[in-house]
Amino acid sequence: MAFPDPEPAAATPPTAQDPLAGSYDAGLPVTVATPYGAAPATGPIAPYLTGVPTDPTASYATDWPTGTTTATYGAGLPSVAAPPAAESPVTQLPVTEPPVTQLPVAEPPVTPLPIAQSPQPPVALPPQPTGAAPAFTGAVGAGHTTKAERVIAFARAQIGRPCVWGAAGPGSFDAPGLSQAAWKVAGVTLPRTAQEQAGVGTPVALAEVEAGDLVFFHDDLGHVGIWTGNGMMIHAPGPGAAVREESVFFAGQSAIKGAIRPA
């Protein structure tokens, strides 16, 4: 078997020459590697600083130009006054007034003033015997009328109610207020005060009084009671007491000044 002839060897391409060849390592030492652990160099050690003056006050910069001058700080500058500090405006904060609490005003107690009674002319009552107490002969049922029965019934219904100055019912009474209210139910209108009541109707002797008659006391005739018989009467004694039935001699015989029959 015949083999083909070998191919001819390829021609070597031309090599371009580096124009800087030989200049990269120009001046480099031939040997640049120092073995590790090699002995240190011998000879005197050069100081780090050379030429430092021994005078500490001398300037470190010895190479400044000789023509350099220094100036004192602030020398030759104009004196300028500092501008006044501008004060910030003061804002007036609103003042909140605390709420005013109205304290309750204690009203003073009202004391009822006594009713000034106009002076009344003296009432001429029939003369009464002096000495022994009069023998009252009037009794319930003896000569009294239907009006007197109504008067006594009303007066007894008020027993226990408080006596109040100037009151004429229905919850409280004074002496003339009780007699006025009692005779009103019987259809007879009496004046308001005891002195005025003593001047109306028919005067009667104390020995002849009957149920429903009015009996007056004291020199000014300022108190009155309603005769009920057997020496007893119903009246309002005075403020702080209660309407009650008791003897006509409650204030003594001399206090009795007369009696009248309203109708």
From TrEMBL:
Keywords: Hydrolase, Protease, Thiol protease
Residue spans of biased composition, Low complexity class: 1-21, 78-90
Pfam families (UniProt xref): NLPC_P60 (PF00877)
Record domain NlpC/P60: where: 145-263
Cross-referenced InterPro entries: NLP_P60_dom, Papain-like_cys_pep_sf, PG_Endopeptidase_C40
GO biological process: proteolysis
Region ranges (Disordered): 1-23, 78-127
Gene3D superfamilies: endopeptidase domain like (from Nostoc punctiforme)
Example of a GO MF term: cysteine-type peptidase activity
Family assignment from sequence similarity: Belongs to the peptidase C40 family.
Alphabetized PANTHER family for the sequence: NLP_P60 DOMAIN-CONTAINING PROTEIN-RELATED (PTHR47359:SF3), PEPTIDOGLYCAN DL-ENDOPEPTIDASE CWLO (PTHR47359)
Name the record gives this protein: Peptidoglycan endopeptidase
Species lineage: Bacteria, Bacillati, Actinomycetota, Actinomycetes, Kitasatosporales
